[in-house]
Design goal:
mainly beta; four-stranded antiparallel sheet; 11 strands; 0% helix
């Protein structure tokens, strides 16, 4: 099992910034990818940003490219999401998600952290 603990959500005005963190514990040796999904009320869940540990490669949703940056500390099993130039449409619950060699893609999810951007 892998446990995920998120932090850093909150409320901000449009144009502002927030930084989310997610720390993994447990069978972390099996993790090969970490990142974030988000879900806004009445909308489908959306993949936001991911980082692959072995290569350091990153993937972003088109809607956040250029504004959000994902980074990670493999040794600490922690991933960060720096969110700049926030827009009201970024308002959502953000979930930390990990993929592991044992359980497969997006096998573990955090409890979610609320991000609210006001206009």
């Amino acid at each position: 099992q892998v446990q995920l603990v998120e932090s850093g959500g909150g409320s901000v005005q449009a144009g502002g910034s927030l930084r989310l963190s997610c720390a993994a514990s447990g069978r972390t040796f099996s993790i090969y990818r970490m990142g974030w999904f988000r879900q806004a009320p009445g909308k489908e869940r959306e993949s936001v940003a991911f980082i692959t540990w072995s290569t350091g490669s990153t993937d972003y949703a088109d809607s956040v490219t250029g504004r959000f940056t994902i980074s990670g500390d493999n040794a600490k099993n922690t991933v960060y999401l720096q969110m700049n130039s926030l827009k009201p449409e970024d308002t959502a619950v953000y979930y930390c998600v990990t993929s592991t060699h044992e359980k497969g893609p997006n096998a573990y999810w955090g409890q979610g952290t609320q991000v609210t951007v006001s206009s």
